[in-house]
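subagent[fold] <- orchestrator: predict structure for attached chain, return tokens only, no commentary.
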Amino acid sequence: MPCGRRKSIPPDSLTQLRQQLDRLPHKSPERTAQVVAVAGLYGISTTSVYRALRRFQQPRAAHRADYGKPRVLPQTELERYFETIAEIKPRITNK
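subagent[fold] -> orchestrator:
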């Protein structure tokens, strides 16, 4: 294995582990045994397995509905504002 490369659990294994853990009671020692078994299988720590499970459940960030558009002013008003500034700027001097 190349140096510096992280070991990771395949997504299908994480899905299967999540389903197995969801069937068990929260305080069940079998849950810990399942996590330890997966950690041993992939050669990582149990903490890494729990971390991978947390990350796996998080939704991916999506773009906002107004992505790439001005949020304060509509595009037409913003362009008119810039045109007004461009007209006034040559008239204003600091002399």
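orchestrator: received. Logging for downstream: The radius of gyration is 27 Å. The CA atoms of residues 11 and 56 lie 8 Å apart.
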